Amino acid sequence: MDDLLSTAEKIRSMEIRGAGRIAVAASAALRDYARTLASLDIEEFSIKIEEAAKTLVDTRPTAVSLPNAVMLTKKHTSLNVGEAIDEIIGNSDTFIKNATEALGKIGRIGAERIRDGDVIMTHCNSHAALSIIKTAFDQGKDISVIATESRPRRQGFITIRELSEHGIPTTLIVDSAVRLTMKEVDLVVVGADSISVNGALINKIGTSQLALAAQEARKNVIVAAETYKFSPRTLLGEMVEIEDRSADEVIDPQLLKGMPNVKVKNPGFDVTPAEYIDLIITEVGAFPPAMAFAIIRDYLGIELDHH
Ligand code: RI2
Fold this sequence. Notes:
The protein contains ten helices and ten strands. It has helices at about 1-10, 20-35, 40-55, 65-75, 80-110, 125-140, 155-165, 180, 205-215, 290-300; strands at about 120, 145-150, 170-175, 185-190, 195, 200-205, 220-225, 270, 280, 285. Bound molecules: 1,5-di-O-phosphono-alpha-D-ribofuranose. 1,5-di-O-phosphono-alpha-D-ribofuranose binds near residues 19, 126, 128, 191 and 203.
């Protein structure tokens, strides 16, 4: 349990971050925890797995990759604990293998949309979005990137380091320079924390202003998202919860001393409606956002876990 709690804490504190990485880390943690429960009977085993699943899912509310990964990993039908553990190990290995391969496939499919000479704007740090950009560059396309800082956690710094190490010319801008800079951009490529059944994208706070500025400037917006970032529970009418993070990420609390009338809000994500999105690149193809239901039905299943 200690290892599982430690992974949960790393996800909560964002030491492990990015919708894809938290999903893979949670799946591996649940798999390793299951291995420690061999001496239990099947009822106790299932209860412990459910508790562990909840601990992992409760760490961060927005990225659906996390509950999807946990849902796919924890499934077991055998009444024999040894076999149930093997099922969970198998589920996790499959999930992690698929998640890893998905990044390469998204890169190859998405790179088709990038032309020689393109200037690409991206936001925050998305491994799926960067896979597209790096693949296009590796194909010999002469591209450059404009990366936003992505306050308050500044994941844009991770992005510019990764792009620089890959040899891709990159310009860093502050988030509020998005609209002014959009005229230099050919294409916006961002990742996803969740995609709802109506095709809306939930991604790092500020994504919707990139999309708004792109639409105004008639530039395309492409979303890079593995199929496990689509949200089956939105089929039940559930809204994706927007994580409210600590005010301390925005401003040092010391600086607020003597300002009793000020409060600080720090929403971690925002919602970009489907009409601002041209294409969602998944590992099984490039789809318009209107296809979100079909992706949920075909790749995640609509027999929902009512917990
Ligand atoms: P990949 C991140 O969330 C960003 O919002 C990013 O766009 C999204 O996850 C997807 O990232 P956070 O964990 O899975 O930084 O494509 O809050 O890496």
